[in-house]
Design goal:
2 domains, abc type-2 transporter like fold, 17 helices, single chain, mainly alpha, 393 residues, elongated, 4 strands, four-stranded mixed sheet
Length: 393
């Protein structure tokens, strides 16, 4: 194993000499975690800017306004109190939703003739639209229940009778796994898995091409070291940093962004090890056959966004075309992101992760086979003269 550690030491020196590469594999993942964490740290939308147009100016309409004021989900923008201002505020983004209380609102409510409150919201951003719709329904339903209770109390019904009527049919909602609908819990860990995927793949992907460009790869081809030793030695620093980054980003998101991370620690570590093996082996294989580092960098950067989109992490796989799903199932990120969510978010144990573990294990074996079995044959040297290995390397 001395040859393996000597090669690993040599590769580590190359990493430390290259400031860009050092930043890439050590500091960039943490920087991405900090940046994405700062974006998603709130997790839940609160204080949504709301404009209220009260055309009735009655006691009941003021109670509706008061109900929205008391909701932590909304922040009423008092300057927006007419319909033209409401339209303009929605266009400029000063407000994201509006409540319009029509004239004769209290009179219609008193006659039980269908008093309505109009809610408008900005659907150009689905996160705003979905949450505003849910929150406004919560406020209006709560107001409706309180108003109905007050009306029945005025008719002489006691509290027990009122509760019996209002509770004739009720809905009890129990949200599992992410009860607060925290967007950071939903999205952030998947982004971190893709960051680890791309950073390590890019770093390992240039380890051999860099040697080719410096005319140093011939040293390895001419050495007595077996191909598997060359692979282990050159890949060991990247595999180690990838595993460390994996643990560091999970810890950072859990402690500082408060992303839910539960489940079996053993399964989380096992997933990370398989993932790191796949990325390291695949990156080395790519580097063996790529003509230069520039092409590796270009293509790997181009593929990161499609990998994330088609993985099914942010959109249900059942609603993705079959052809795209087949392609996604050939990607390690798809199985890793799904498996990590099953463990960390849903706290599931090994029997539920068998498909993910099998897929990642097969990919790990395949990537290791491709990386370990390269031949040490080389092309004859060019006629441009003898290069100085000592100066170039």
């Amino acid at each position: 194993m001395r040859q393996v550690f000597n090669i690993a030491y040599y590769e580590t020196l190359h990493i430390m000499k290259d400031k860009v590469l050092t930043l890439l594999i050590i500091f960039v993942p943490l920087f991405y975690a900090f940046l994405c964490g700062a974006v998603y740290v709130s997790g839940v939308l609160t204080g949504i800017p709301l404009g209220v147009v009260d055309l009735d100016h009655s006691r009941l309409s003021r109670e509706v306004v008061f109900a929205f004021e008391n909701s932590p989900r909304f922040k009423i923008i008092t300057e927006v109190d007419t319909y033209p201002l409401l339209e303009e505020g929605m266009k400029t983004g000063a407000i994201r939703a509006g409540v319009l209380i029509p004239e004769d609102f209290e009179k219609k409510a008193a006659r039980n003739s269908g008093a309505e409150v109009l809610t408008v919201y900005d659907g150009s951003n689905l996160l705003w639209g979905y949450n505003i719709r849910k929150y406004t329904m919560e406020v209006v339903n709560q107001f409706h229940s309180n108003h109905a209770a007050a009306y029945m109390a005025g008719m002489g019904l006691n509290r027990h009778e009122i509760y019996d009527i209002l509770d004739t049919v009720s809905l009890n909602v129990d949200v599992w796994y992410n009860p607060t609908f925290n967007y950071a819990t939903f999205m952030l860990l998947g982004i971190m898995m893709m960051v680890i995927h791309q950073i390590c793949l890019l770093a390992v992907g240039i380890t051999v091409t860099r040697e080719k460009e410096r005319n140093c790869w011939i040293q390895y081809l001419a050495s007595a070291a077996a191909p598997w030793k060359i692979f282990l030695g050159k890949s060991l620093p990247y595999f180690t940093t990838n595993c460390l980054n994996y643990g560091l980003l999970i810890w950072f998101n859990y402690c500082f962004i408060h992303v839910k991370t539960g489940g079996s620690l053993f399964l989380i570590i096992l997933l990370g090890l398989l993932y790191a093996i796949i990325i390291t082996g695949t990156g080395f294989f790519i580097s063996l056959h790529a003509p230069n580092s520039l092409l590796v960098t270009r293509y790997l950067m181009l593929l990161s966004v499609p990998f994330f989109i088609i993985s099914g992490y942010t959109w249900p796989q059942t609603h993705i075309p079959d052809l795209v799903n087949i392609l996604a199932r050939a990607l390690p990120f798809t199985w890793m992101a799904e498996g990590f969510r099953l463990v960390a978010l849903k706290n599931l144990n090994l029997p539920y992760l068998v498909p993910n573990m099998l897929a990642l294990s097969v990919m790990a074996i395949l990537s290791l086979f491709l990386a370990l079995t390269f031949t040490k044959q080389r092309k004859p040297p060019a006629d441009t003269g003898v290069f100085d290995l000592k100066n170039d390397c």
